[in-house]
Write a structure and sequence with these properties.
single chain, 141 residues, 6-stranded antiparallel β-sheet, two-stranded antiparallel sheet, 1 helix, 16% helix, globular
Length: 141
């Protein structure tokens, strides 16, 4: 059950066709969980599976959704974020189109406008992808 009541694009800066989360499942302190129904016509689907760039973008948007969710709770503008670095990216499997994946990010540290997150994409109890990301937040719109 998604915890937001409006369109996910209210929480993230991405727009169609690059929206890679369907909704927010949980925001609890440093942890964020999102779900994505992988549409067969998703821009990152090839040969019936979600490709590695799609998985990485899904992790980044899960991190962005946390920031957007908090901004919405505080009635402040949703800031833009940029991926500064990706570390230890592992793509273990590619999930099939037409299915739902669940992605979790956990904040490791926040220093000034840089946030370190670890992310993991799951499908049917199996890890599909995982990595660490350094995300820079631009509070100016």
């Amino acid at each position: 059950m998604f915890i937001h009541t409006d369109d996910i694009t209210a929480y993230i800066p991405q727009r169609t066709p690059i929206v890679m989360i369907s909704g927010i499942l949980e925001v609890d302190g440093p942890l964020t969980r999102t779900g994505l129904h992988i549409a067969p016509d998703n821009i990152f689907v090839e040969n019936g599976v979600l490709t590695a760039p799609g998985l990485m973008e899904n992790i980044a948007q899960t991190a962005a959704a946390r920031i957007g969710y908090i901004a919405k709770q505080q009635n402040t503008p949703v800031p833009l974020g940029f991926i500064g670095a990706v570390k230890d990216l592992e793509i273990l499997e590619l999930p099939p189109a037409g299915q739902m994946i669940e992605t979790t990010t956990v904040i490791g540290s926040e220093v000034f406008n840089a946030t370190m997150v670890t992310g993991k994409v799951m499908y049917e109890g199996r890890v599909m992808a995982q990595c660490e990301m350094k995300i820079f937040i631009n509070p100016q719109l």
